[in-house]
Fold this sequence. Notes:
- 29% of the residues lie in helices and 21% in strands.
- It has helices spanning 2-6, 53-62, 80-83, 86-93, 104-108, 185-191, 196-208, 226-232, 245-263, and strands at 16-19, 22-24, 34-37, 42-45, 70-74, 96-99, 127-128, 135-137, 140-146, 155-163, 168-175, 215-218.
- The longest helix is centred in the C-terminal third of the chain and has 19 residues, at 245-263.
- The model has no long low-confidence stretch (mean pLDDT 94).
Amino acid sequence: MRGCCDRPWEWAIRPFRVTPHVYYVSGNTWVGCYLFDTGDGLILLDTAMQPSLYMLLSSIDALGYHPKDIKTILLSHAHYDHCGGAKGMQELTGAKTYLGERDLEFMEHPELIYPDRYPYNRFNVDELYRDDKPIQQGRFTIHTLSTPGHTPGCTSFFFEDTDERTNRTYRCAMHGGVGLNTLADDYFITTGQPVTLRREYRESIIKCSRYQVDIAIGSHPNQTNMLEHLKKNSGCEYPQYDQDAWMKMIRFRLSQLTGIESESKLEF
């Protein structure tokens, strides 16, 4: 995070299409933000960091969209690299902003949001996710799933997107946060977060494995090898199409978690 915050231009990348109506727009190669063209305004999934906000806005502009058309902001979890730009985007757009309920605690303890003390402004949370209440806007119905672990309120997203020219529908998903840096003993001891999050992570990511996914997008692009797909499949209309990527990510993270569990000295 430090390198991308201090010198964001060194991480720059142009926006690119991920699904028929969803685009990668963070402007940097480290953390992902996604713009949904719903046909009835825009949805922005995650806002990246405050120092890279200009790159996010530039990406949206490069695609021919305007920030003022963003009606909804979805935040995967309350870590600075995903919500650092939220306040600025709220001021620009007036968009309704969603967050997982259990991450509201982080709003009262901002040291959990931005431990490196980068510029940050508290944002408003207008709505809380509910697994039984999908978010509907235009052509999209986005189902959310509480996937605690990386943070208590970490939320994952599942949706379908249809290419009207071919009438082909793609099943798409983004896990809200698969990083295991917050599941190590040192993190629990330092922050006071409950070690039970480690068990919740395992349970929730196994739940995610029950979904069949055609296009897996990453809260960080390296999680589903998005940039490698973009380069390798540059001649394809949807380079991220890979029916194995979702399960590869899940299996890899579970193997990492097993290693952390075996070395842990903390008990639930």
